[in-house]
Amino acid sequence: MATKINIKHTESGMVKTGFYGYSWTYLVFGWFVPLFRGELGVGALHLLFTIVTGGIWQIIVSFLYNKQYMTRMLTNGWVLDGSDSDKVLAGTSLGISTHTNN
User: What are the residue boundaries of the structural domains of the chain, listed by start?
Assistant: First the structure.
């Protein structure tokens, strides 16, 4: 099951909810999930791969999607936001360093 954590954009201060862990949402809704999260290009690719693989893609990516999404967000100016323990847990799950200079 996916776990929620807030992410904050470093320049605008905008806050969103990010997720890490298994994505039941992706398993059920498939390529619609990237569309709902504003990733139109990713959604289009996922639709193509779902069609080509006869739906197998959707099963496999449900294990990977949240990590891929969070990695894209964190490399585009977003940072983990929340308690230190939440950041460490999310960072460990995502395979990233949570050290900050604050």
Answer: 1-23+65-102, 25-62
Render pLDDT for 25-69 as a digit per residue (tens, 0 to 9).
Answer: 999 999 999 999 999 999 999 999 999 999 999 999 999 999 999
Contact (Cβ atoms closer than 8 angstroms) between residue 30 and residue 58: yes
Residue 95 CB contacts under 8 Å (≥ 6 apart), including other chains: 67
Give the per-residue SS3 of 31-99. Answer: CHHHHHCCCHHHHHHHHHHHHHCCCHHHHHHCCCHHHHHHHHHHCCCEEEECCHHHHHHHHHHHCCCCC
Q: Are 8 and 86 in contact (CB under 8 A)?
A: no
Q: How far is CA 26 from CA 19, 59, 79, in A?
A: 12, 8, 23
Cα–Cα distance measured from residue 11 to residue 16, given in angstroms and rounded to the nearest whole number: 14
Q: Using the 8-state DSSP alphabet, how is residue 10 labeled? A: T
CA 38/CA 70 separation, integer angstroms: 13
pTM, 2 dp:
0.83
